[in-house]
TrEMBL record:
PROSITE patterns according to UniProt: ADH_SHORT
GO molecular function: oxidoreductase activity, acting on the CH-OH group of donors, NAD or NADP as acceptor
Keyword vocabulary terms for this entry: Oxidoreductase
Family annotation (InterPro entries): NAD(P)-bd_dom_sf, Sc_DH/Rdtase_CS, SDR_fam
Gene3D superfamilies xref list: NAD(P)-binding Rossmann-like Domain
Lineage, opening ranks: Bacteria, Bacillati, Actinomycetota, Actinomycetes, Mycobacteriales
Name of the protein: NAD(P)-dependent dehydrogenase (Short-subunit alcohol dehydrogenase family)
Amino acid sequence: MEMDVTDSQSIDNIFQQVRNRLGPVSVLVNNAGIIARGPAKDLSEDEWRRVLETDLTGVFLCSKAAFSHMSNLGGGSIINVGSIAGFVGLAGRLAYTTAKAGLSGFTRTLALEWAKDGIRVNTVAPGWTRTEMVVKGLQAGLLDENVLVERIPQKRLADPSEIASAVRFFASPESSYVTGQTLIVDGGFTINGH
């Protein structure tokens, strides 16, 4: 199944298909994301809008679609996949960092509003992870793995499975009393002062 997270009708269609096949949605992971690289002065309005529509508006639309499923079940868990880009400046990624920073406020506000419906909302903010997006940046010479690893106290990029473990925690009953939080999973990158 494919879905366009910027299109409410596409989202509604997929949620209906999921309900028909598996029942109501009890866990939603908002993980769609794109990036536009380059200096802010060269960022086009179209690129800005495309990144924010996917990385932030898509989270809103999918979460809103999940609400009726989860509230009818008496609760659920929404996990947003953010980024360390929401906590540190990353030159050449203005739209992406803006969208990811916005997820923190989105997460706290939605968690506050939907707690009465039994819906928990949290964010996992990965650091440098060997994802397709990062690998493409490395291959294009836009990122330098040695430079990145030097800044990470654990001296390596994360494996995607390590991020998945944090997401799994928020989806599980083990996090039943946790909502409105952002868990940074970055090998110590954001605490490193240089």
